[in-house]
Amino acid sequence: MTIDNQPATRRGGSHMDLGHLDQFGLGETALGEFALVRLLDENGVRHEDERFDAWVSDIGPDQLLDLYEDMRVIRRIDSEATALQRQGELGLWPPLLGQEAAQIGSGRALRSDDFVFSSYREHGVAYCRGAGLVDLLRVWRGTTQSGWNPYDINMATPQVIIGAQTLHATGYALGIQADGTDAVAVAYFGDGATSEGDVNEALIFAATYAAPVIFFCQNNQYAISEPVSLQAQRPIADRAPGFGVPSVRVDGNDVLAVLAVTRAALDRARSGGGPTFIEAVTYRMGPHTTADDPGRYRDAAEVEQWRGKDPLTRVEAYLDAQGALSEERKARIAGKADAVAAEMRAGITSLVDPDPLSVFDNVYAEPHTGIARQRDHYSRYLRTFVGSDGR
After folding, report:
1. pTM, rounded to two decimals
2. Considering 20, 234, 297, 373, which one is annotated as catalytic?
């Protein structure tokens, strides 16, 4: 991947002025249902936007091809993980199908010293951060309590408690402030999380202390089975200015627009401008998790309508029109995606199950009588099964 993660500059060499609530040209109050930043529409047509074009002035066909390849690979990873769950190799999997542009566009905008706090669906962001293929899946196989060392890739392991990661990101951002660096903390969450108190509390603290944090909401239209229209009577991005946090709505299926908006927000945070709230309007094409049946709560016609807004096909259409996506390149990308999936499958299915009693390790730094008692009870329980170790 060759995308430069430093923000592009405006013509003349100066960055956009992002110091006010109306920094994005969308006003301080209501953004409006259709006020989406969009640079590449569903037909692959490039649209000019004087607010954000400068932030992707370095993205030509070659760089867009790299982003397209990322999206193809992560979609293949996602489909393989879903298949692994269906085949009994994983206990659960939360698919990201349809949200590739939101994750790759924002993930590729980040610097290596930025720190990400995500929910459980940001596999694309983790891929951008350098997470190992097996590390993406091992927690879903149940062989570990975590997927990776957060400090190896500057990304916390997935948060299952809805919205809690926004507080973690804000706290980390305050630490960045105290250290005097220009790194940024980024919190990823879904539309459902915005109804949680944690998210609102995080916005209050971030605004109060002008913390260098980005709140990145992937509005995929459903909080499990509840449509966003039931919990948000106005666009979700409208909420943030009430806390003093500027916000922007972006077409979450447009990887170019997501990259531009994220770069602008990062630059604002690095220059002392404080937090930004990004609402990436996208759609969860698959189930909430592999334990879910979305056919029970949404109409097939709605899914088909969003299928026409697919984040990959619009980039492919644009690149085809530019003559930049040859059949040879398509085949090479497909080959890489398949190879990645095969490597991931081989790695995850060869993992050795941990010792059952290891669940008690590292709970406390020092010996603890309560843990010792529980370990003893569980050990005696395991011995009632075949084999002394319960296997």
Report:
1. 0.90
2. 297
The strand pair at 247-251 and 222-223 is best described as unpaired
Q: Is 108 a catalytic residue?
A: no
Residue 67 · residue 255 · CB < 8 Å = yes
pLDDT of residue 22: 45
**Contact yes or no for 194/242 (Cβ under 8 A):** no
pLDDT band at 145 (very low <50, low <70, confident <90, very high): confident
Query: Which of 288, 314, 318, 345 is flagged as catalytic?
Result: 288
Please say if 345 is a catalytic residue: no
Q: Which pair of structure tokens corresponds to residue 270?
A: 């690095």
How many whole angstroms separate alpha carbon 300 and alpha carbon 6?
Answer: 41
pLDDT(82) > 50: yes
Q: Read off the tokens for 163.
A: 């919205």
What CA–CA distance (Å, rounded) separates 117 from 102?
15
- What is the reported pLDDT for 391? 53
Q: Which H or E run includes 344?
A: helix 327-349
- Specify the amino acid at residue 127: Y
Task: Name the residue among 174, 163, 188, 160 with its Cα closest to residue 262.
Answer: 188
C-alpha span between 364 and 371 (Å, rounded)? 9
Place 315 in a pLDDT band, splitting at 50, 70 and 90.
very high
Model confidence band, residue 35 (pLDDT cutoffs 50, 70, 90): confident
In this prediction, what percent of the chain has a pLDDT beyond 90? 87
User: Which residues are registered as beta bridge partners of 93?
Assistant: none
For the question of residue 297 being annotated catalytic, the response is yes
Quote the strand ranges of the chain, DSSP E.
115-117, 185-190, 213-219, 222-223, 226-227, 247-251, 276-281
